[in-house]
Design a protein that fits this description.
Layout: H1 2-24, H2 33-48, H3 57-84, H4 90-108, H5 111-130, H6 135-155, H7 161-177, H8 186-214, H9 222-247
């Protein structure tokens, strides 16, 4: 029961920070509000992932995933604008700021944006009422499986790096959610965070290069971004190698 209550306590804390971030979305000038919404959604999904099979978890997880999917292109645009502001390309930057403003206004009218907090608030009552058995064993098994899955993926040099980035992110957040049941060492957890950051930098540059290839006004930045992509990829591979070593030690 102590574990169940700690799960509810974590969820209530995430609910509070998520709601604060959602309120900040109304301030169009807040460049970090959407990022904070997405981080909290990821943490909620990580907390719930080992609890699949418990009533209400699938519905809540799917809603969080859908909200994350809806906000991904908007966040990508925010990140691109921040990068463009580092270059003397005022027209390209202002054009995308106008687009961002339009997308954020459209986001505010999404029914899921108001429906999800309602689902989130109601779930702990369902969780307590069902009184699930073997919760600790279920979570420990899930963490172990995710760790093994990541180790196997890193051992495959041809494994898609985009999917690998998601595996790293998911394990990092689930370890943060359940540190008392984590099968990995503190050193491995630190390496996990480093690898996530390195893969995030690589992913940003990959997205910029893709956009520059398809958006003519970004062509002047493509050579620079391609060089930055190569550097970021090398750093990510180095971080993955270090992570693999400590996870398999």
């Amino acid at each position: 029961m102590a574990l169940a209550e700690s799960i509810v306590t974590q969820l209530r804390r995430l609910e509070s920070t998520l709601n604060q971030a959602l309120l900040r979305l109304h301030d169009i000038t807040d460049a970090e509000a959407l990022h904070d919404v997405r981080i909290n959604l990821q943490r909620i999904r990580s907390l719930l992932r080992p609890l699949r099979g418990i009533p209400g978890v699938t519905q809540l997880s799917r809603a969080a995933a859908e909200l994350g999917k809806i906000t991904t292109p908007i966040r990508d645009l925010e990140v691109l604008i921040a990068e463009l502001e580092q270059h003397p390309l005022a027209w390209q930057t202002n054009t995308r700021k106008t687009e961002l403003h339009s997308r954020k206004l459209a986001l505010m009218s999404q029914p899921l944006l108001t429906h999800f907090p309602t689902l989130l608030h109601a779930w702990p009552k369902t969780f307590r009422r069902t009184n699930p058995r073997h919760t600790k064993r279920r979570i420990a098994l899930r963490l172990s499986l995710q760790t093994k899955q990541l180790c196997l993926a890193m051992a495959d040099s041809h494994y898609d790096r985009h999917r690998l980035r998601l595996l790293v992110k998911r394990l990092r957040y689930v370890v943060d959610a359940y540190p008392q049941l984590s099968p990995i060492t503190p050193e491995a957890a630190a390496n996990l965070k480093t690898a996530q950051s390195a893969l995030g930098d690589w992913h940003d540059r990959f997205v910029w290069c893709q956009q520059a290839e398809n958006q003519q006004d970004l062509w002047p930045l493509l050579p620079e971004w391609q060089r930055a992509l190569d550097v970021a990829q090398a750093k990510a591979e180095k971080a993955l190698l270090s992570l693999s070593r400590v996870l398999n030690a």
